[in-house]
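Quick question, first post here. What does this chain look like in 3D?
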Amino acid sequence: MTRHPERIRLPGGPEISRLICGLWQVADIEKDGGTLDPDAAADALAAYAEEGFDTFDMADHYGSAELITGRLLSRTPPGARRPVAMTKWCPEPGPMTPEVVRRGVQERLDRLGVERVDLLQFHWWSFEHPAWLDALHEMNRLREEGLICALGVTNFDAAHLALALADGIPLVSNQVSFSLVDRRAGGALSELCARTGVKLFAYGTLCGGFLSEKWLGRPEPETIPDWSRAKYKRFIDAAGGWAAFQGILSAAAGIARKHGVSLSNVASAWVLDHEAVAATIIGARLTESEHRGDNLRVFDVMLDAEDRAALDAAFAATDPIPGDCGDEYRRPPFLTASGDLSHHLDTIPSVLETSAAPTRPGRTRASSGSVWEPLAGYSRAVRVGDRVLVSGTTATHGADRCVAPGDPGAQTTYILDKIAASLGALGAGIEDVVRTRVYLTDVTQWEPVSRAHGRVFGEVLPANTLLQAGALVGDYLVEIEAEAVIDPAPGS
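> Answer (accepted):
Ran it through. Tokens below.
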């Protein structure tokens, strides 16, 4: 009997292989403008599917991956179980109107040649641009309409995944980097998954091939020939460098010898053993050698206490990757192939309008476009010289909707994103904040608010005052104001 990968059913979603075939290499193969022959490439995918590797992960920017997978899906005989197609929509930040979202989803349907996407995952580049919630709510309406089976996200940190769930988005998955080198997903994100049932898809589990015998005891590479390895070499550098990485390789190699498997099997097994992880994503090689047999051996590895102690000792000699999951796309140090977002985006637009105060020279104002700003006579933020003051900010989305009613921690996360956007519009940043003032309707809810505040300001440490307000309008539980001082440039 032919052995197949283990399977798992996503809550409210499809049943998938625990070894997902990632098609990111299609974009790398086609980066010079050529395209793969769709029938020949579909033949390669069919060979994976026949051996149980029948779950394929792609994205709108993975070259012709969706078209190739669509060709494979079209071959499925009536009544037979067809492969599972997971894709991603990664729009540039901007207004997410129903028309924009429907076009993005319809393009996925058309390229895959299906009436319903099995799992549509959403990626957003900057949470300071709040239209990500508009996009997810509209995608959920399309799910209810039957165009999407299940919704997921990619590269969301724990705080924003919690915010999306608190705002009523029925997410089933989050695709994030997770490996022996990048262990961020094993913390707050896994704890959130345990409470909510959301499952993780782990990519980068082999660090672009660095987590293999090939690199054990080898000198640090001077040049990196492809974008995938270039990206994960930045992760290795951020985790303490090549010597610390060799410590992880050495520990994993010893465990591999003990169990009679490959080092890569150990790396994948360690990730799959986390309860929050539904599956790891492996590269589907369409033009190179394949390793399906070796990949299956990951299910033979049962890590014991001795194995975990050896890995923990190696981890102790490394540095934690900074921030939370997805931060590599949103804040320095950008752990991407180019070290910034230049190969993804030209710019991220501000959601605020700025203008000079005509009667007060040297004063600049930022407006969110709220109808209340001119009616009540205030600005979202004001800059006077090197000082920026941000008005009391609540979790208002759009004209008058309260985000995440009943959840003070989620509201705080959303508020702090709005404050960051307000500061950015006037040339300041979170790092420039010297004072915050937090108002709560119920002071007994201080802890989730304080934790959200600490996530953003834990290194900045501004002066802070926590106050209990008698009441805030509507469903608002939190209001925050901030003051920043921009340090003059050196030598000015």
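The mean pLDDT is 93.
The CA atoms of residues 64 and 447 lie 48 Å apart.
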